[in-house]
Design brief:
CATH topology: Rossmann fold
Shape: globular
Structural class: alpha/beta
Helix content: 25-40%
Domain AB hydrolase-1: 33-254
Number of domains: 1
CATH class: Alpha Beta
Radius of gyration: 17 Å
Strand order of the largest sheet: 1-2-4-3-5-6-7-8
Protein name: Pimeloyl-ACP methyl ester carboxylesterase
Largest sheet: 8 strands, mixed
CATH superfamily: Alpha/Beta hydrolase fold, catalytic domain
């Protein structure tokens, strides 16, 4: 990937810097894939997967860390996220980021977990601004298994060396962890549901999930297929919540095939 650069935008009445990296920008005319990370992710946590995917498909790529993650601006000292935090990322941050970097084309969004949900919300709000979606283990409603495992993550953060491990991927690890963990465990968040907002999605959608996903059941991606006609589903055996780590080759093959098949369609 190229060197990390920063874009500055105004969000929540303050200046926010967004770290981002381009992959193979010299492949002019190739599809652009924008990678949206999970609830505890960042550019660094993707490791080499975005490059592998783009090389396999001959794509260009754009990887970035949302506010509060990686080397992007951390949450403010008193800033807490509300039930609509993913909506605000999709409806406010992502459009502002694209404007700040001068993006004037329709990208493919490749989102994992929370990043998958944000991708769905963006495509639902701005159906004419996206070429297609690839979502890995997205959430469209809250399940008990998700909350139970996020509670286990809270205990691990308090009682183990998890902060040290996550510190390799975030300048402010407390900002990243508690921003994500507290809102998911906030009781009103159990009512969060974006199923109705999928109805306005018009682009091709590929939804991938591991059969052994510890953070959600297959009802998540099957629910997308019920709402978005033509959604392609891939249910991977021997795979948990992160298909790009547990089954990277299968995730790459499915994605490249899906994007290229769409390009060949009349």
């Amino acid at each position: 990937m190229s060197a990390t650069t920063f874009a500055t935008l105004t969000w929540r009445e303050r200046k926010v810097r967004i770290e981002h990296q381009w992959i193979a920008p010299e492949r002019t005319g190739a599809p652009l894939v924008v990678f949206l990370h999970e609830g505890l992710g960042s550019i660094a946590m993707w490791k080499d997967f975005p490059r592998q995917l783009c090389d396999a498909g001959g794509f260009r790529g754009l990887v970035f860390s949302r506010p509060g993650y990686g080397r992007s601006t951390p949450r403010g000292p008193e800033e807490t996220w509300d039930v609509d935090f993913m909506h605000r990322q999709a409806h406010e941050v992502l459009p502002a980021f694209f404007e700040a970097i001068g993006l004037d084309e329709k990208p493919w969004l490749f989102g994992h977990s929370d990043g998958g949900s944000i991708s769905l919300l963006y495509a639902g709000r701005f159906p004419d601004r996206v070429a297609g979606l690839v979502v890995l283990a997205p959430h469209i409603f809250v399940e008990d298994v998700t909350v139970a495992n996020i509670e286990q993550a809270r205990l691990a953060y308090l009682e183990t060396d998890l902060p040290k491990k996550l510190g390799r991927y975030h300048d402010d690890v407390d900002s990243a962890f508690w921003g994500w963990n507290r809102i998911w465990l906030h009781p009103p968040f159990k009512q969060w549901n974006i199923e109705a907002e999928l109805d306005t999605i018009r682009c091709p959608v590929l939804a991938i999930q591991g059969i052994d996903d510890e953070y959600g059941t297959l009802a998540q991606i099957r629910g997308i297929a019920e709402r978005v006609p033509g959604t392609a589903l891939v249910e991977l055996p021997d795979c948990g919540h992160s298909p790009h780590r547990d089954q990277p080759e299968k995730a790459i093959v499915a994605t490249v095939s899906f994007i290229n098949e769409d390009r060949r369609s009349p």
